[in-house]
Amino acid sequence: MKEEIEYRGISQRKLAAQMNVDYSELNQILNSKRQVNTEYALLFEAVLGIEAEMLIKMQARYNMQMIRKDRTFLERLAKISNSAAMIVP
Asked: What count of Cα atoms within 13 Å lies in the side-chain half-sphere of residue 19?
């Protein structure tokens, strides 16, 4: 998203004003410090014409990539899978 608004020559402050949102919150989203939620996806769609559903899917894919890199969570999943395998007849 950040590259898109830069390409279009829109400042983050102007975009925040157009979307009627807090600049710092928008900046966090554009710098991957906060997730794109449904509300923001719809706001981006209204202002930039970028499909909200696509943004939500991109966020979900990114979330999956990040969690798959989390060794602690992967170990937890492995334990759960092993336990579940013993329960299923």
From this structure: 26
State the pTM of this model: 0.80
One-letter identity of residue 59: Q
Q: Which CATH number fits domain 2-87: 3.40.50.150, 1.10.260.40, 1.10.340.30, 1.10.3210.10?
A: 1.10.260.40
- DSSP 8-state secondary structure symbol assigned to residue 89: -
Please, what sign has the CA dihedral across residues 55, 61, 63, 65?
A: negative
The torsion angles phi and psi of 66, rounded to 5 degrees, stand at -70, -45
Is the separation of the CB atoms in 4 and 48 below 8 Å?
yes
Q: What is the mean pLDDT of the chain?
A: 93
